[in-house]
Thiolase
Amino acid sequence: MEKFPRGKSAIVGAATFGMGEAHGYKAMDLVARSAHLALADANLKLSDVDGLFVCTGDDALSGLAAAEYLGIRPRFTDNNRTGGSAFFSHAINAAIMLEMGYIDTALICYGSNQRTGAGGLVSMRQASPYEKPYRPLNPLSSYALAAARHMYEFGTTETHLAEVAVAARAWANLNPDAFMFGKGELTIEDCISSRMVSDPLRKTDCCLITDGGAAIVMTRTDRAKDLVKKPVYLLGGAAAVWHSNVDQMENLTVTPAAESGQRAFALSGYKPADMDVVNVYDAFSINTILFLEDLGFCPKGEGGNFVAGGAIAPGGSLPVNTNGGGLSCCHPGMYGLFTIIENCMQLRGEAGLRQVANANLAVSHGNGGTLSSEATLVLGTESTL
């Protein structure tokens, strides 16, 4: 833990492509287009890439396919597949390898055409034999269990869940790249009256189904300072896996984020209260509440009250999911990498109307499986080193 290379690597390029609907593009097309854009953003070339980190939902060997498609021969590939948290583990591995001198340039990328090409949600998992007889709508029903338990134990309400969705839409309305941009304001009443999908989660509690590609480029700090864009430094990162299926969770209201967040903040030298921007994987509205609690932004059980009254919306006390999140920006199967890119834009001062003033510290949090794999990155500007 003490040997984590704090601030020794930086994200120097970041890009998305095809968020929303990308007609005519396959998943690997979106990976490649995002990769080219991220490298251009970093003023680097494909030939500079010697570490390739990728995970797609439609190819178990996407590390091989991406190298072939891009026409590169990397020294190392990582195809770790833990769902939406995978890209955080990729960044942690890349930081360690960069510090060791094992690689010089890491490309972390993702793409999915699940909206226009796959006919709905992409799943890489087999149903649990303990859950299958009950015919759950997974992954939705697993998150509904967590929401129901949180309501039972702590008095969390449908209104609290709605606050998360309303805040996400408000941020999306400031983001021209968001799928729900220009779709109008969302109100608490809209949420509570929306269709029930898996009790207690309604339609507005559920993430979008979109296409999208994303990529970031990482290199060592000494090299990062010579590139065009303002580097975003990796100050701390940690991951935790506690189970696979939700029926094996010891406590439906406590996720592995309680471990990954604590370790990531400790490595960074900063606390949750120091963060200027927070972007977490909000596949469902309950996620945001659970992760804000487990990451240490409020005590366990108080997440509902913490998000109430527009506290995480534009103009609130804590900017959360500032691009609109998985609920209102995009959700192409695995959303995790998009939280990192949004924080890069915020820390580089490139977020336009949704820009958080004087943003120097940000936390990204990724979720994989059904609250199974959690991973946390603390990112900062040069002033935070």
In short: The first helix runs from residue 27 to 42. Residues 129 and 361 are 43 Å apart (CA to CA). The chain is about 30% helix and 20% strand. The domain at 9-119+211-234 is CATH 3.40.47.10 (Peroxisomal Thiolase; Chain A, domain 1).
